[in-house]
Amino acid sequence: MNEEELWQAVLAQIQLNISPANFSTWFKNTSILKINEGEVFISVPNFFAKEWLEKKYNKMIFQIIHTLNEEIKTIKYIVGKQEGKIINNKEEFFNNNQLEFIEFKIDRETNLNPKYNFNNFIVGPFNELPYAAAQAVVNNPGSVYNPLFIYGGVGLGKTHLLQAIGNTIVKNFNDKKIKYIPAEKFTSNVITAIRNQEMESLKTQYRQIDVLIIDDIQFLAGKEKTQEEFFHIFNNLYEKNKQIIISSDRPPKVIPSLTERLRSRFEGGMLTDINTPDFETRVAILKSKAKEKMVDFSDEIYHYIANNIQKNIRELEGCLNKLIAYQKLNNTPPTIEITKSLLENFLITPKKTANPRKLIQIVADFYDLKERDILSNSRKKEIVSARQIAMYLLRKELKYSFPTIGRKFKGKDHSTAIYACEKIEKELENNSKLVEEINNIKQKLYDY
Ligand code: ADP
Ligand code: MG
Predict the structure, then answer these.
(1) 55, 160, 189, 273: which has the fewest Cβ within 10 Å?
(2) Nearest CA-CA partner of 282 in 256, 250, 244, 320
(3) From ligand 1's centre to the CA of 121, what distance in Å?
(4) Which CATH architecture describes the domain 128-274?
């Protein structure tokens, strides 16, 4: 079997294992360049394909190719038709496709990545408070909110915000010495310094800083020695009115085994949290990221992603990047069907685990009623209102049609369902208790 035949045989098997769309997206224009001492070099048309094959398909390719040629031990993917031209080809590819993927360099001195700034930071109800605090700090570092403590879940923009603060201060005050450091890195620096008896010099370095930014402080949990060193550094800077900015995935009072003195220091400044973005903000973020990358998709696609990814901006971006890769390769934007199949593995769709039975059960439990009460014809006030909430959620969360919703409740018709949804929607506008209840119910709906 020559190289060409070998690769055709491999492709034939791959084709059986993956969807036609994926096959043509990732395996079109691939070939074997050469086989040399157990290494096979596969030519791929572009950088995206290289990444995908390496990350996603390498194992499968290897298994198949190895059964056909046992001598093959490793696979290398080369962009273009020649070995050793990877970098050139990557650049060429980006140039040809006018992709604005600027490579950002992390500043050695500050550790800041210039890609994070306020121009590309979307502000919505979910993060406007931390944003406002950040603005106050960049205008007057050290004198307003000190420390500034920002907390929130994974992928919601803590690092982005912290780094944007740092980058903006660098721009506004070029005489200030700024340092960004993840708490994990800080910990390992402290451990090394202790081991090498260099703690004094480490402390001296930190004493010269004007703005200290520590990311993911929850990593200090349980690390007593590091906390102690941090406490001294913190105090020294704090007493000199130097700005300290901290992020965490949770508020100080629930960081386990955080020494009391650090906790009270953190709580002595400004505590503010990043929430989860609402649907409109999620769509706005997607659109802004797409624009940044000079692509655009249909609203249907943005809505599809925003509906499926609700709690993590990093994942929103991940989905978008997949679609961009597709678009670049095929020179055409994906349809909604292709979008669904491209993102299939990516989306842990809550819709799959949430079903109407479960929803009604959860609503019933929440209001301390029986499922059969909600499904009954009872006109008791509390039952009617729970029933309307269930109808509203069936519509909003599970996207059921009004007639279908009506049928689930003892043959009520679509107008009852429409009325229920409108009523709840109206009430949500100025009943914050109901907002909270519904949020709680939603959480339960997706949590197990
Ligand atoms: P965290 O540190 O909270 O886990 P990151 O700051 O790393 O989250 O954010 C994850 C991704 O989402 C990053 O690529 C970041 O640029 C992007 N991102 C987060 N918040 C926003 C926002 N408000 N506007 C635009 N992009 C955002
Ligand atoms: Mg982070």
Answers:
(1) 55
(2) 320
(3) 8
(4) 3-Layer(aba) Sandwich (3.40)
**Which of 77, 70, 68 has the alpha carbon at shortest distance from 40?**
77
Task: Provide the residue type at 149 as one letter.
Answer: F
Q: Give the other-Cβ count within 10 Å of 319's Cβ.
A: 22
Cα(426) to centroid of ligand 1, in Å? 32
Average pLDDT over residues 150-154: 93
Q: Nearest-CA neighbor of 277 among 319, 308, 313, 249? A: 313
Dihedral sign, Cα of residue 303, residue 309, residue 315, residue 319: negative
How far is the centre of ligand 1, averaged over its atoms, from the C-alpha of 158 (Å)? 7
Q: What is the mean pLDDT of residues 328-343?
A: 88
Residue 93 in this model has a pLDDT that exceeds 80? no
Looking at the domain 352-445, which fold is it?
Chromosomal Replication Initiator Protein Dnaa; Chain: A; (1.10.1750)
Contact 417, 331 (CB under 8 A): no
Q: Which fold has domain 3-105?
A: GMP Synthetase; Chain A, domain 3 (3.30.300)
C-beta atoms surrounding 205 within 10 Å: 15
CB of 319 closer than 6 A to ligand 1? no
Helix (H) or strand (E) holding 267: helix 260-267
Architecture, CATH, for domain 279-348: Orthogonal Bundle (1.10)
pLDDT band for position 205 (cuts 50, 70, 90): very high
CB 353 within 8 A of CB 446: yes
Quick check: CB of 313 below 6 Å from ligand 1? yes
Residue to substitute in 216, 218, 313, 316 for testing ligand 1 pocket (most ligand atoms within 8 angstroms of CB): 313
Residue nearest to atom 13 of ligand 1 (CA): 314
160 CA to centre of ligand 2 in angstroms: 7
Ligand 1 pocket, residue 80 CB under 6 Å: no
What is the 343 CA–ligand 2 centroid distance (Å)?
24
CA distance 220 to 256: 9
Domain boundaries of the chain, sorted by first residue:
3-105, 128-274, 279-348, 352-445
Are 177 and 171 contacting, i.e. CB atoms less than 8 angstroms apart?
no
pLDDT for the residue 36: 87
